Amino acid sequence: LVSLLLIGIAAWGIGFGLISSFRVVGVVIAVGVFLFFIAFVGLIGAVKHHQVLLFFYMIILLLVFIVQFSVSCACLALNEEQQSELLEVGWSNTNSARTDIERNLNCCGFRVFYPNETCAADCLRTLHCRPCAPIMEEYSGMVLRFVGGIGLFFSFTEVSGWL
Questions:
Q1: How far apart are CA 86 and CA 71, in angstroms?
Q2: pLDDT (mean) for 86-101
Q3: What is each CA distance from 34 to 22, 42, 129, in whole angstroms?
Q4: The pLDDT of residue 70 is above 90
Q5: Of 137, 135, 136, 119, residue with least CA distance to 127
Q6: DSSP state of 148
Q7: DSSP-assigned letters across all residues of 51-87
Q8: Burial level of 12, CB count in 10 A (0-12/13-18/19+)?
Q9: Can you give the residue ranges of every domain in the chain?
């Protein structure tokens, strides 16, 4: 289920133009395919009553649980200052993401917009553009809580599959 969700959400994001980085989409789809393969191995092991296959399935599922639980806890543990620092580093390192953010959120600049900088937002025509940092911080806090909660839910769902 999780694997199909990952593949579907990545395809949806690229289809609607929400994500322009093919690397991000490729990684999400690869993780989805990996999880689907692991689920298939578990299914074959259960149908054939193959103990070695089931043993490796359980070991890989344990590793997936540890990674998923760790990432979920990290998402929920980030405070606003750490989120702001991460956003600023990402903002200064990628021009394509900056252009996408300015266009999608209709904002210019990170904390302050300088007139000699380029901006892809429509608000530039009216010269009343808000900086992107407050908008991104609001969205990132929401997304991190959502992703952390969903990740915890699915990680404990995986553990309940062992029982």
A1: 15
A2: 82
A3: 18, 13, 43
A4: yes
A5: 119
A6: H
A7: HHHHHHHHHHHHHHHHHHHHHHHHHHH--HHHHHHHH
A8: exposed
A9: 1-49, 68-162
What single-letter amino acid sits at 58? Answer: M
Amino acid at 90: G
Average pLDDT, the chain: 82
Give residue 8's identity as a one-letter amino acid code. Answer: G
17 forms bridges with which residues in the sheet? none
Do the beta carbons of residue 96 and residue 21 sit within 8 Å? yes
3-state secondary structure 87-136: HHHHHHHCHHHHHHHHHHHCECCCCCCCCCCCCCCHHHHCCCCECHHHHH
CA 27 to chain centre: 10
Alpha carbon distance 17, 119 (integer Å): 18
Residues counted in the chain: 163
| Residue among 111, 110, 93 nearest 101 (CA) | 110
Token pair for residue 153? 């839910």
- pLDDT band at residue 48 under the 50/70/90 scheme: very high
CA distances from 96 to 36, 72, 107, 113, 161 (A): 31, 27, 15, 17, 41
Whether residue 72 contacts residue 155, with contact meaning beta carbons closer than 8 Å, is answered with yes
pLDDT at residue 4 tops 80: no
The answer to whether the pTM exceeds 0.85 is no
